[in-house]
TrEMBL record:
GO function term, MF aspect, one: oxidoreductase activity
Domain Fe2OG dioxygenase: 183-287
Keywords: Iron, Metal-binding, Oxidoreductase
Organism this protein belongs to: Melanomma pulvis-pyrius CBS 109.77
Entry's family note: Belongs to the iron/ascorbate-dependent oxidoreductase family.
Name of the protein in its database record: Clavaminate synthase-like protein
One BP term from GO: small molecule biosynthetic process
Lineage: Eukaryota, Fungi, Dikarya, Ascomycota, Pezizomycotina
Amino acid sequence: MPRAGDAPPILDFAAFYGDDAAAKQKLVDDVRNCCLHNGFFQITGHAVPLELQDKIMDWNKRFFDLSLEQKMEINKDTTNTWNRGYELMKSQILEPGTLPELKEGYYIGDEIPKTHPYFVEKKLNSGPNMWPSAATLPGVEDFKATALEYYAQVVALAKDILKVLALTLDLDESFFDGFAAGAVATMRLLHYPSQPPDSPAKLTRGIGAHTDFGTITLLLQGRVAGLQVYDHATAAWLDVAPTPGAFVVNLGNLMMRWSNDRYVSNLHRVINVSGDERYSIPVFFSGNPDYVVRCLPNCARDGEPEKYPPITVEQAVLGGYADSYGRAEKWKRDEADKKKGVEGLAGTAVAV
């Protein structure tokens, strides 16, 4: 079991695919302990090839090396309404009281055509991807193929992790299959510029302390550190060192809610004071947008009340987006108002 002050352990997920019942049970027990403790663990021994991980991370860097003008050609806020494409630096504030975050992103998901019911009904993050043109990004067809292959493999891995999570709750391995059928998942390429060493004291974050909105997140870290997980037992931030080939897995708010707060959706953040550019790729597995989440069996025992009313996946995730992006927009409006106020005072002084 993870101890207070330990970074998320690295578990060998190969046991899930093997024939050793004892090894599989140990994996289930270890995952359960992590879910009860901090809601974070890392896995190796999965089926996503290291070569594919390295290739998508290389494309991640190549995309963000484009000029701002080139990236803005597929800006998610101006080219579509379904959250696909480029996201500007300082677009989010996930941690109340901090400054807009020093990260830029690029959203990718299933290649949903405009004839698909999810698009027609404006379901969560569902629509065509926004890709750079061949003139903007040479080799873009390989970028597309690599991104979609990586996305598909990580989504498949997420579904296997859900099978293990079902076993940790003494449920049938297939319990989450209905939730996972027709699931929405969002992949986000991220770039964090290096920050000054005094950034934490000045409330500047690569990404502020937050819990994820959905069910589970699988993160490919790259080679530069910066991810920190909060350990409630010691009230300390723990560094999660990048491990080649490993995925960091964490539970989101929806899984915590689903388990009646038995499992933990824990705080994490990124502060990149390494001196190097940091790149990472999270895949947020939300689930079927219409699936209604209510307290899981075995999670409200001996007359314990259910803490939350039923909610759809879509309602839960959209609420998280509204909060974090709304904070950033409010900050920008407040800063603009302050600037106008200063300019107004200056004009008054000149007039006098």
